[in-house]
Prior knowledge:
The structure holds two protein chains of two kinds.
Chain A: H1 5-17
Chain B: E1 8-12, H1 17-28, E2 34-37, H2 50-61, E3 65-68, H3 81-96, E4 101-105, E5 108-109, E6 119-120, H4 126-143, E7 147-150, H5 158-172, E8 178-182, H6 183-192, H7 197-201, E9 209-214, E10 218-221, E11 229-232, H8 241-250, E12 259-262, H9 272-294, H10 319-334, H11 338-346, H12 363-376
Helix pairs in contact in B: 1-9, 3-4, 4-5, 10-12
Amino acid sequence: MKLSKAVLGAIVVGLTVQNTPETVP
Amino acid sequence: MQATPTLCSALACNLDVDILSAALPLLAEGRVEALEWSFDALFWAGQIPDWFSELLRTYSASGRLLGHGVFFSLLSGRWSREQQQWLTQLRQLANQLPFAHITEHFGFFTGQNFHSGAPLPVPYTPVTLRLGQDRLSRLYEACQCPVGLENLAFAYALEEVKRHGEFLDKLLEPVNGFLILDLHNLYCQLHNFSISYEDLIDLYPLHRVREIHISGGSWEASALAPGQRVRRDTHDQGVPEEVFQLLQRTMPRCPHLRFVVLEQLGNSLRTEDSRARFRLDFGRMEALVQEHRAGLTASADQAFLPLRPPQPGPALEEPALHEQQQHLSRILETAPSVAEARQLLLASPLLASTDWNIEQWAPHMLETAVRIAQKWK
């Protein structure tokens, strides 16, 4: 599924700034 | 909105930097046709960041966001305040972010805390059937979309393995629910109980399969039988060759299959090598899905919605079952050895000579249950 450049860019920024289960800006 | 393929290659993708880093090239190439999200992992974590919400909203708007619950503990004998809160949060979330469907795991959690422990099976009895049907009707009432259950990897005995599919079918029948057939879980059972694929696969309600999971796992040596290994569903390795073969053999048997999902835990995706292997696994799954999709003929879609809306009354509780579950959990979590766990179980007036059939439990699987319970207590 094609994602917009805005969505992909936001993920890249989120990961750049930067840790789910057989227990906190 | 982009048209949804009849059968989607999907990823289990949570708010986890390692999973997202491994998946980013696949997302950028537009190859991830649906997204599965363990929504309840964030029920205790406060706000979801905007950039992740936007990713979820994009898939939701195309009808391709799958919700996969982890912590509901469907077959706990007691109805807890936390379970009620879990449903309330799911209802709010599903209003904001429509899901294509919602799924949960079979079993009850061993831990004392609501969101800790590991899911273990229960006896297949009229009591547990009524309880599970009650919980599934509440799940549907909260999310108002198709609901499904995943087959469990762990079992105590071969007879239980053979009856798992039939019991899942009965649980799902009142809500007209569907099955997630986890093929790595099936692989665990084939190995751990020395049963053939041909003998096991048709014991599952394949007409209810809407989703298939593939993943990796690990081997654990049994201290009870030198040379014997137990297959564990740990999701911390790439997909083994045998599971790809199971996928190829199983897809044609599932007329209502819509999603095939690759799962791997983020903590096993911290090196570039592991991330490259993850993407290769996705590519191989994608190729098998496309090959199968090319041969599909148009068939009537199965909505997997209740024929009559369930109207759950007060939550069903089974105090005797709850007491048995608590007692079993305590033994598994605290026994200093497998032999001692077995002695305690056989001496227990709550569990011995009951539907739990502890007398028939395979020693290497009791050993595994002790390890799982003590790992996650």
